[in-house]
Amino acid sequence: MNKQIWEITVQDLSDHTVWQFPMWKNDSFDETVIVPANESDALDPNSKIIVKTKFLDSEGYEFVGFINYGLTEIEYSQPCMFVKDEVVGFWFGISKPSKADLTKLNFPIVATSIAVYGLKPKSVVIEGYGYINEDSSSCVVHC
After folding, report:
1. Which of 25, 63, 100, 114 has the fewest CB atoms within 10 Å, measured from its CB?
2. What residues contact 66, with CB distance under 8 A and at least 6 apart?
3. In whole angstroms, what is the distance from residue 20 CA to residue 127 CA?
4. Tens-digit pLDDT profile for the chain (143 aa)?
5. Contact, 1 vs 7, CB < 8 A?
6. What is the SS3 string spanning 104-137?
7. DSSP characters over the chain
8. CA distance linking residue 40 with residue 125, whole number of Å
9. How far is it, in rounded angstroms, from Cα 26 to Cα 125?
10. pTM
11. Residue 39: predicted pLDDT
C-alpha cells in the first residue's frame, strides 16, 4: 500500500503505527511516498520512518498525529497532528507562515511518539509554527 505523505489519515495510523519512506532502500520511490513499515525496517538505523504520536496541548486536550522518528527538533521531526480530521503541520521551512492561515492552538504542545517495535518514545515540544528566517535562524510564530 503506497501513499503520499499528505494522504495519511488517522485510520492509517491506527492500522499501522509505523510508516516508512521506502526511498531509503530503493531510490526508485519518490521522496514523498510512504508505506507501512515492518519491525525490521522500523529498527534499521538507516530507515526513514514516521511514528504515530500523541499530542497534548497546554489545556490538556489530546490529539493524534505523527513525527519523523529521530532527532527531536521541530525542523527534523516535522510533527503533524489531526485537528477535526485536518492535518496541521508545524514546520514551514523557508516559508514564513501567515498568521491568518494558521489553526489557533494552545501552545506549547508536547508530541510523544508511541513505543512500538522496541522504538523508544521520542518527545518534541512545539512552541508554535516554525520556519527559517532570512538570516537562516529558526523562528516561531504563535497564534
Report:
1. 100
2. 8, 13, 19, 50, 51, 52, 53, 79, 80
3. 27
4. 899 999 999 999 999 999 999 888 888 888 899 999 999 999 999 999 999 999 999 999 999 999 999 988 999 999 999 998 889 999 999 999 998 889 999 999 999 999 999 999 999 999 999 999 888 888 888 77
5. no
6. CCCCCEEEEECCECCECCCEEEECCEEEECCCCC
7. --EEGGG--HHHHHH-SEEE-GGGT-TTS-TTEEEE--HHHHH-TT--EEEEEEEE-TTS-EEEEEEESS--SHHHH--EEEETTEEEE-B-TTSPPPGGGSPP--S-EEEEEPPBTTBPP-EEEE-SEEEE-TTS-EEEE--
8. 28
9. 32
10. 0.92
11. 96
pLDDT at 94: 92
110 strand-pairing partners: 56, 125
Burial class (CB in 10 A: 0-12, 13-18, 19+), 41: buried
Neighbours of 84 (CB within 10 A): 7
Q: Which pLDDT value is given to residue 134? A: 86
| 59: amino acid identity, one letter | E
Bridge partners of residue 108, in order along the sequence: none
Cα end-to-end span (Å), the chain: 37
